[in-house]
Amino acid sequence: MTTDDNVFIGIAPNDNSWYLRFYLNWDEEGFNLIGRFDITLPAELAERFRKDMTEPQAIELTEEDAQTYYESIT
Predict the structure, then answer these.
(1) DSSP letter (8 states) at residue 8
(2) How confident is residue 15, by pLDDT bands cut at 50, 70 and 90?
(3) What average pLDDT does the structure give for the chain?
(4) Helices in the chain by DSSP H: which ranges?
(5) What is the largest CA-CA distance in the chain?
(6) Cβ atoms of residues 67 and 59 within 8 Å
(7) What's the Cα-to-Cα distance from 29 to each of 1, 32, 33, 34, rounded to whole Å?
(8) Sign of torsion, CA 7 11 14 17?
């Protein structure tokens, strides 16, 4: 929604086996993109994601179980 701030875009496959939400916007000066993402994965994919994405990219992740996460955003 072009007139709303802090709106996340959500993507999921038809079987709902995972869910990716992301937000990207320009900083106040308009020079740098800033953003964040949330991804919900089944346990068998979470370990692979953790290994493949965080180690080579040096991305710091915060992990929560799904119930705790959804309670924090509602």
Answers:
(1) P
(2) very high
(3) 79
(4) 43-49, 55-57, 66-73
(5) 41
(6) no
(7) 21, 8, 10, 11
(8) negative
